[in-house]
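Example 3.2
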Amino acid sequence: MKSNEKQFWFPTKTYGWGWGPPNCWQGWVVLAVYAVLVCGGAFLVPEDVILFVAYAVFLTIVLTVVCWIKGEKPRWRWGKE
């Protein structure tokens, strides 16, 4: 039986604001691709630090958008609620 409840890839953190570790394989794939792209960028533009920082910031923004779309709505939390 299928549930109509939306499955989140990134649950909210227990303490603080934002998302915690992924709770399904899709979220782990997103994080792995992010890590590979950031590390790969270090080899693609090793001499231009400013270009690499811009590349890393762009990837981080993309990761944040994916977390926002596929994760729970972030809010400040003080523990188990």
